[in-house]
Design brief:
The complex is a heterodimer. Chain A is an alpha/beta fold. Chain A is built from nine helices and six strands; from the N terminus they run H-H-H-E-H-H-H-E-H-E-H-E-E-E-H. Chain A has one domain: Rossmann fold (3-Layer(aba) Sandwich). In chain B, strands 7-6-5-12 form a four-stranded parallel β-sheet, with helices on one face. Chain B has a four-stranded parallel β-sheet with strand order 8-9-10-11. A two-stranded antiparallel sheet of chain B has the order 1-2. In chain B, helix 9 runs antiparallel to helix 17. Classes of the chains: A alpha/beta, B alpha/beta.
Amino acid sequence: MAETKSLVTENVWRVLRRFTAARIGLGRAGISLPTQELLKFQLAHAQARDAVYFPLDVQRLVGVLRESPAALPGNSPLLLKSQAENRLTYLQRPDLGRALAQESVQHLASYQAPGQEAPVVAIVIVDGLSSTAIQNNAEPMVTRLLQDLEGESETWRLAPLTIVEQGRVAIGDEIGSCLGASLVIVLIGERPGLSSPDSLGIYLTWGPERGLSDARRNCISNVRPDGLSFEQASQRLLYLMRESRRLGISGVSLKDRTDEVVIETTANNKNFLTG
Amino acid sequence: MAKRYTYTLGASTWQFRGLADLLAKATPARSGDRLAGVIAESAEERVVAQMRLAELPLTEFLSEALIPYEQDEVTRLILDTHDKDAFAAISHLTVGDFRNWLLSDHATPESLERLRNGLTPEMVAAVSKLMRNQDLILVAKKCQVTTAFRNTIGLPGHLSTRLQPNHPTDDVSGIAASILDGLLYGNGDAVIGINPATDNVSQTIKLLSLLDDVIQKYDIPTQSCVLTHVTNTLEAIDQGAPVDLVFQSIGGTEATNSSFGFNLATLAEVRDAALSLKRGTVGNNVMYFETGQGSSLSANAHHGIDQQTCEARAYAVARRFDPLLVNTVVGFIGPEYLFDGKEIIRAGLEDHFCGKLLGLPMGCDVCYTNHAEADQNDMDNLLTLLGVAGCTFIMGIPGSDDIMLNYQTTSFHDALYARRVLDLKPAPEFEDWLVRMQIFENGGRYTPSRLLPDRFKAPLKALKRDVGDG
């Protein structure tokens, strides 16, 4: 055992991992990556790849959403598709992922809202680049948000929930516009990182319509159990929703001031290297 | 009205709508050109376009601007700074002849250096479209570009690394941990460069001070950079921050650069400000630029020009400001621009070739995202090919995993691999430091010391005491 162990030179500074999730102090076999570390990397990459390529199991997601402790708007989510017919097309043609398929446009047009008044908010769930993010995190995020909305003093009339396959962020604007909502909230699977295959992104647009640029949207990123928690994400989102509704804007002109920290210019850079 | 180009092959005559169309159709296939709708419609059309391009006199690029002179300051820069005397050596050649010339023994490191200012990005992009990967490697290897700040970058037989200690919340201890890891694996001679998670002036100053403290305390012959917008760096300089290198992402059209929030005058102003600090010890190259195929299309600022030609035009912008380092971040942009390992590898070799031929200290972020059809093996291939081609520098990051930008690039280990298989040394001043600090126990074999070097024992010991586990 001792003999095989000596094949790998370990790094005593691996203890510094308490400061960072970066892959430091990996040690080396010769000058190369030791087998154990190589395999850990390969596993992380495999999980990220699977998150991109595994199709969203829409029926399972609908089932989970139906069991949500929060009251879902509408009876059952409306199921929609983008113009990207498959994953390969989706990855190479972001323009197609931003546009609703013709059948989905008709599906939305034929939907009859139960009430007379137009909804304020439409919540749109989009697979994006990580089905894992949506499969694992969409329901708890939606539930949290709906419960928090119930506690608001203002009324947030909700459009029915929609779920989109092969979609990009901007497809939410077309959906929000079809549903006549003032505000659209998109929950989308983010480009998976090696250590975060399940990261959910949340985008908000006031006055959604086709063709708006990114500058018109606000974003909350890295929502997942090991990142920004559902509770924190919901609080930040509620802040943006209230402000967006009050001011009638979204995007670069709407600032998220929930976590504004003042960084002193003469900041303390004390760290173990400079003492 | 753009000049039309035709080519007759057997019974059929092929038409190309203008020089931009001819260049785009002649480009090896890639997803970004397909997305832009400028790609050849068949494999045959692509080769016919290459045949037509091969017959084109190089002088054509001086009379046919891809974006009109009046509309684009990058076009004006290219044409106004073109050196006709330097061009004279090849002015009689066609694009096809130029490929032959570059591969011939007429093209030596000396003659290529004399030629640089006579070449436009379009000439270089055009000839690259006729070249195979081995041609791109062979010619790039003949180009020698040396720059300097606190060390000397780009000497033949050398490969430098940017130590990239990114952290998702810019935590100073987290950043310091990655810096130490990199230094102990012999990385960081090109630059220690952080992409800040929070991108504003006060954060920039904080991180610059951190890097300056480390470089000074350990007397490291290298330079620092915080990769923030030029206007932030300018403000940091005004506030007295220790700025070594000025960073900016640049593109090959005025509209791309406008979308990035700067123009050529901005770059000139901030470069002057950085030069006024006189922080370089062995040289005065103070700029660090990043580029990448697809940025103009992504900004909807490509004017119907293929992404590789747009990229080469960005090098005219870089060349104007005598950079220490230029980095093509080749696989970062995603599969809608470069779909798979094959396209990423080809683009990396093209960018390195074009940059070097134009006289730039060309490095490459050998990288991919998780939604691209690429993996570590593709990166090993590109790293090895670029090492053979004489690439100036690559990135170095712990275990290939950038936990802030969420993509994979070359690791500290990868750099040691390239050194060992290709016998590539770090910058000489930095290599001396590595040996002096006992970081490398065998400089010739690029082997890190088995034991922790003395100089780093104290900080780690102090740390153990602090947390009570020592």
